[in-house]
Amino acid sequence: MQSKLIQVSLDARKKAYAPYSKFYVGAALETSSGMIYPGCNVENASFSLTICAERTALFSAIAAGEKDFTHLVVATENGVSPCGACRQVIWELCGEIPITLVDETGVRTETSSSELLPQAFGQQDLGS
Ligand code: THU
C-alpha cells in the first residue's frame, strides 16, 4: 500500500498549480476504508489564498465523508516536511498517523503527526 500511496502523491504533484513559487507539492491520504485521496498545492495571484497540498487532500476527503485516516504521504522536489499550518490541520483531522515524506528521486523519510507537531494544541485544550 505504501508504494501505491507514494505513486499517488507523485502523480498529484504533477497537477500542482504553482505558477508563482514553482514549488510543486503532492499529497496522498489513505483512509481506513482503503481509499486514497490526492491533493496538490493551488496558488493564487492573491498569494495568501494559496492552499497547500496536504490540506487539499484532507479537505477533499472530509468533503467526501471520510473521517478515519491511516497514512499521509507528501511529495516535494526535496522531501521537505509540511508547513506549520498543515501540521495543525493534520493533527486536528488525523490525530497520530504515520507520515511519509518523499522527494522526486524516491528518497523517503518516515515521521508522524506528533513528531511533526509535539505538544499540539487540540480540541481537548478548549476545556468545557
Ligand atoms: N506548500 C505545500 O503545498 N505544502 C507545504 O506543507 C508547504 C508549502 C506549498 C504552498 C505554496 O504553493 C508552495 O508550496 C510554496 O510555499
How would you describe what is shown here?
This protein is of the alpha+beta class. The chain contains four helices and five strands; from the N terminus they run H-E-E-H-E-H-E-E-H. The chain has a single domain, classed as Cytidine Deaminase, domain 2, CATH 3.40.140. Helices cover 30% and strands 22% of the residues. It has a five-stranded mixed beta sheet. Strand 3, helix 3 (84-94) and strand 4 form a beta-alpha-beta unit. The relative contact order is 0.17. The model has no long low-confidence stretch (mean pLDDT 97). Bound molecules: tetrahydrodeoxyuridine.
Furnish the topology, listing elements before pairings.
Blueprint: H1 2-13, E1 26-31, E2 36-40, H2 53-63, E3 69-75, H3 84-94, E4 98-102, E5 108-112, H4 113-116
Parallel strand pairs: 3-4
Antiparallel strand pairs: 1-2, 1-3, 4-5
The structure holds tetrahydrodeoxyuridine.
Tetrahydrodeoxyuridine binds at residues 18, 21, 23, 25, 41, 43, 50, 52-54, 82-83, 86.
Task: Briefly say what this structure is.
By secondary structure, the protein is α+β, with helices and mostly antiparallel strands.
Radius of gyration: 14 Å
Based on CA inertia axes, which overall geometry fits? globular
Element pattern in H and E: HEEHEHEEH
CATH C-level name: Alpha Beta
Low-confidence stretches: none
